[in-house]
Design goal:
By secondary structure, this protein is an alpha+beta fold. It contains two helices and six strands, in the order E-H-E-E-E-E-E-H. The protein has a single domain, classed as Hotdog Thioesterase (Thiol Ester Dehydrase, Chain A, Roll), CATH 3.10.129. Strands 1, 2, 3, 4, 5 and 6 form a six-stranded antiparallel sheet that branches. Strand 5 and strand 6 form a beta hairpin. It starts with a strand and ends with a helix.
């Protein structure tokens, strides 16, 4: 899994316990999954359909740097399924895992639309040398 996005846990991200608010982390993951899907499916019109069980393992605290990894695991006719891992950048201690995040490709009418993708494509491969 590649970890591309990093976040710095700041005071405004904390819950009353002094640890990272889970809702804030899920917001970051949802945005990361959306961006990953938009790049892969080459369509800005996507929506989150499903997230499987969210396993909170460790709670980051203020000042921690976390990194998020997203990996495509399945391509459906109109969807793409990913898994996610979040870890502490410095210690590599796991923070959270999500086994399945399903994003759906939408057409101009706002309804699910086939995307025609079957595997991960890298921008460098699309553009050539």
């Amino acid at each position: 899994m590649n970890f591309h996005t990093r976040k710095w846990v700041k005071p405004e991200d904390l819950n009353p316990n002094g640890t990272l608010f889970g809702g804030r982390l899920l917001e970051w993951i949802d945005e990361e999954a959306a961006l990953y899907t938009i790049v892969q499916l080459e369509n800005r019109h996507i929506v989150t359909k499903f997230m499987s069980e969210i396993n909170f393992i460790n709670a980051p605290v203020q000042g921690d740097i976390i990194e998020m990894g997203i990996e495509a695991i399945e391509f459906g006719r109109t969807s793409m399924t990913m898994c996610c891992q979040v870890r502490n950048k410095l210690t590599h201690q796991d923070i959270l895992t999500i086994d399945r995040i399903v994003m759906v490709n939408l057409g101009a009418d706002g309804k699910p639309n086939p995307h025609g993708k079957t595997k991960i494509e890298y921008v460098k491969d699309r553009l050539g040398d």
